[in-house]
Amino acid sequence: MQRRQFVKSAAIGLGALASGVGVSRDSAAEPATPNQSPAQAGRPVRAVSIGFRPGLTLEKIAGLVDGEGARGADIIVLPETCCGQDEKSQETLDGPTITAIARLAQKHRTYIVCPIDRKDGERRFNSAVLIDRRGQVACVYDKLYPVWQQECVIQPPVQPGASVKVYSTDFGRVGLAICFDVNWSPLWQQMSNQGAELVIWPSAYSAGRSLQAQATQFNYYILSATQVPDCLVYDIDGELLIHDTENAGSGINVTRVTLDLDRCIFHQDLNLPGRRDALLKDHGDDVEQEKWWPMEGWFVLKARRPGVSARELARQHGLEELRHYINRSRIEIDKCRGWEFS
After folding, report:
1. Measured between alpha carbons, how far is 342 from 197 in angstroms, rounded to an integer?
2. Contact 88/50 with Cβ under 8 angstroms?
3. Which CATH class is domain 19-260?
4. CB 185: neighbour CB atoms within 10 A?
5. What is the pTM for the complete model shown?
6. Which of 34, 172, 204, 328 could cysteine-pair with 261, CB 3.0–4.6 Å?
7. Do the beta carbons of residue 44 and residue 37 sit within 8 Å?
8. 283 pLDDT exceeds 90?
9. CB 166 within 8 A of CB 174
């Protein structure tokens, strides 16, 4: 099996051209028709990460979102507290930022993740607001772990959020986490348990290996949008697919990528050789083994043609996805310990 080929340049660093492994870089030269694309295998989602250094005006931010929305996207992501976090930046969900970005979500029929310094009565939150294709607020995630020596000491202090959020969009299950959250694996475990297929991570910094560890352990794509500005995209097995840094110049990064949410990862235990081989024998024209990781004992399946779900065919043949296998193993091992509850 051929390994992914990386395109290196001063502008985009480790930006990957990886269409052969369920990920493709959207062309910067030819705008796509909004929310329309040729029939593709799997369950593709077109995602855009817009990163920028602090200080951009709302007018400039809206202009960037408008331009990317016009190209066609399923979800557009902005960095943490995109309009700042200071004594004047607090605003409610009906404030100027969400109002302006919601209009663009409706105009371009796209989801947008817009992080703000959110005011909720007397309380202050660092929030990632998911706006749906109709321009409605669909989900609000409040950062569970504010940076205590910064956010928790300003006035009024940023309050820790109360719960993990995973939202069912029309293309798949999207989880949300923010910046410092990357350091607490139980949060990422809960997103996995709630079926997250893509996790959006707005941030002030890049995180690198800390972020990669969560994708490796919990088997979903992760897409970042940061104030660096940069964008990291990790595969469902934790492999780095893209690292772009300030690729648009002037303190701005724009990364466009298409991710196949139907791709699925399995442990070799119980699935080899019988179940996997039977699947590939019966549906060799429909499904292929795309990746093989011998040291980890993993493999990845993907659909080969439109209208086919590798995940569903695998399920029909009794294959159990890696995250499900690990969770079930924990429960069964706890039963062996004699624990009533797990």
Report:
1. 24
2. no
3. alpha beta
4. 14
5. 0.91
6. 172
7. yes
8. yes
9. yes
